[in-house]
Design goal:
9 helices, 6 strands, 6-stranded antiparallel beta sheet, flat, alpha+beta
């Protein structure tokens, strides 16, 4: 049996197709099985790594800096995983917190003219945010491929191998002046990203509670000794 069969044939140590899924629930239709070591494990037995990259303004760089960015990025693409994706998520700017704060100021303001100015400011900001202001988040995404060598056929070994690929990308993109985010609790960060992607509107109002990943693992976790 070759490594590809081990990965996609169901013989990965620690990979369990069983799980708690209720009919018509999110768990049933969501393609994600679990998150381990910052790696998204899908129900169709793929292992996906997602890294967020902070952009730079290429046009503000000097000609020499621009040339270096192109050179190092091209160098990375030569050794990058075959199925590398670059994804950009565009969203309207979330100003709910700012509006709520200004509304509190308006409620306690005694000067009517100042209160009118605050109301005008909230209206202007809301109009601009609704029609013009957007935020952009950039990600590089790749998956485990059969030719990638691992130290074993376990879920953890595959996650470690993808983390090595992510570290390689970090080094090259750093030479381009790009920062790849490295959160302290990477599983939680990936879970939050998936939550915000699936719930684009409600995620603005309802944030995931602290410790949610530990809670979900306790209830729906399927990987014990990986």
């Amino acid at each position: 049996m070759n490594l590809k069969e081990l990965i996609f044939g169901g013989n990965i140590k620690g990979f369990d197709d069983s799980g708690s899924e209720y009919g018509g629930s999110i768990q049933q239709w969501l393609p994600v099985k679990n998150i381990i070591g910052g790696t998204v494990i899908t129900k169709d037995r793929r292992f996906v790594k997602i890294s967020e990259v902070l952009p730079v303004n290429f046009h503000l760089k000097t000609p020499l800096e621009q040339q270096n960015i192109i050179y190092y990025f091209a160098s990375y693409l030569k050794i990058a995983p075959n199925n590398l994706q670059i994804r950009v998520i565009t969203q309207r700017l979330d100003l709910d917190g700012y509006i709520a704060k200004m509304r509190k100021y308006a409620e306690t303001e005694e000067n009517e003219k100042c209160k009118d100015m605050i109301e005008d400011n909230m209206q202007m900001v809301s109009d601009v945010a609704a029609n013009e202001v957007t935020t952009h988040r950039f990600f590089i995404i790749f998956q485990y491929e059969p030719h990638m060598k691992t130290k074993g056929n376990t879920v953890r070994a595959i996650a470690d191998r993808l983390n090595e690929e992510a570290e390689t990308a970090r080094r090259f993109l750093d030479l381009c002046g790009l920062e790849v985010l490295d959160p302290d609790y990477v599983d939680n960060a990936v879970l939050e990203l998936l939550y915000e992607t699936v719930n684009k509107n409600s995620a603005r109002r309802v944030k995931l509670p602290d410790g949610v990943f530990d809670m979900m693992t306790a209830v729906h976790g399927i990987y014990g000794g990986y």
